[in-house]
Structure formats: C-alpha cells, structure tokens
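quick q for whoever's on today - can somebody do inverse folding on this one?? i tried earlier but teh output was garbage lol. tokens:
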C-alpha cells in the first residue's frame, strides 16, 4: 500500500478542519508533511533498528586512500563488510575516535590482519584504519534518510496505515499556526506513537531476536572469534 503527497495533504487539511482555507499554503503543508514523515522514520528505526529501512552500497578501496564518500541518502550505518580473501565477506568493527592512530603501523588488509582493520563514519565519509593496501570490495549496510515527497504523485509506503501518524502530526502543525487548540489531535498522536512503537517492535513475529553474540560476526575458521 502507498499514499500520495496529494492524499496526505488533503487528509491533513480535513483533520485540521482547514479544507477550504489557504492560511497554510500547499508548499508549507508539504514541508509539514515531510517533517512528519521524518519523525515517523525515526520512530520505526528506534522501534526495531534497521529492518524497516535497510540499504546496501558497494564500492572498492584504493591503495593508500583512507576516506571514501558515503551514499547521498546515508543516515546511519548498520554494518561494514570487506571481501578480504577475494571470495568471502568479513564483518569489521568500528574504531573509537581516540584510536584513530592505533592501527596505522600494523595490520594488513587480508584475513590474517582482519582484527586490525577498522572503520569509522566521519562527516560525509567512511574512513578506514589502517589505510587500505590494495583494491578491496566493501559492502556498506545502512539506513537511508527519510523519503522526501515533492510532486503530488510522489508516494509514501503506507506500512499498516502508519501514514495516519503523518496526517495527524501535520494537522497539529496547521492548527498551531492558526492558533487553534490541537489538544485532541495531540492525544491521538500520542496514542498512534504508542501503537507504532509496540506493534513495530518485532517485524519477524515468527522468529524474535536472540541475545547477540558480539564475537560471532565472522566464520570461526577464519577469525577464531577474535576479541580485540
């Protein structure tokens, strides 16, 4: 199911009882709606981390180049994999900022040096330490920024009618600008938020998450569950 920007705008005006009013322009209402979509985006991420919005981005390293541009829609990193033996991907860990020089002088980009190869998101780049010493395939798992609707026909994926949250929140913004009382809608928003947080908490109802083994990211044969 999907809902268009035009439908979101019309339904927001209905909720705010401003169907025949131009006090809030379409352009301004579009801004309200996109801000509300971003808020819903964050609620779903916080409810169950990455599974609602997960993208994959692949690129290759260049020898002696430590920093690489992130995708233009990047929001949060979920995981970083390197193909260190030319065949299998391996999960690597983040280095803390105070460790930015720790791995520079030891460790190579192969399976034996896996425990010393780290990454960190810094500004609009992903940076590796130590610097890559060859061409290596990288797979970045990340959460993209929220969908921004521009044209009337642009669509928002309406997961289980969660668009109701966007509509109510945009209507609250409209009523606030008009200096009307949005208390009823504020209560509805709180109830919707609670519903989303509870219902969205486990997207795989058949197989809930287990306790995560932080040392089991890679195949033991190669990595021996290194704890560095």
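ok took a stab at it. sequence:
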């Amino acid at each position: 199911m999907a809902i268009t920007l035009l439908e979101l705008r019309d339904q927001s005006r209905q909720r705010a009882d401003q169907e025949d009013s131009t006090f809030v322009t379409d352009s301004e209402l579009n801004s309200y709606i996109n801000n509300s979509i971003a808020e819903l985006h964050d609620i779903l991420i916080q409810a169950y981390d990455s599974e609602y919005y997960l993208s994959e981005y692949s690129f290759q390293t260049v020898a002696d180049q430590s920093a690489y541009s992130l995708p233009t829609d990047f929001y949060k990193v979920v995981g970083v994999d390197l193909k260190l033996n030319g065949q299998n991907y391996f999960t690597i860990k983040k280095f803390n900022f105070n460790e930015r020089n720790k791995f520079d002088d030891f460790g190579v980009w192969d399976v034996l040096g896996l425990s010393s190869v780290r990454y960190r998101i810094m500004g609009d780049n992903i940076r590796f330490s130590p610097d890559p010493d060859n061409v290596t395939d990288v797979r970045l798992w990340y959460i993209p920024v929220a969908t921004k609707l521009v044209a009337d026909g642009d669509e928002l994926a309406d997961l289980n009618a969660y668009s109701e949250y966007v509509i109510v929140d945009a209507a609250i913004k409209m009523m606030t600008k008009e200096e009307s009382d949005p208390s009823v809608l504020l209560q509805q928003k709180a109830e919707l938020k609670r519903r989303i947080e509870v219902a969205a908490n486990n997207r795989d109802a058949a197989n809930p998450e287990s306790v995560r083994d932080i040392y089991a990211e890679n195949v033991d044969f190669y990595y021996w569950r290194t704890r560095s």
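fwiw The chain has a mean pLDDT of 87. also Helices lie at 5-15, 26-48, 163-177, 183-199, 220-223. so keep that in mind when u check it
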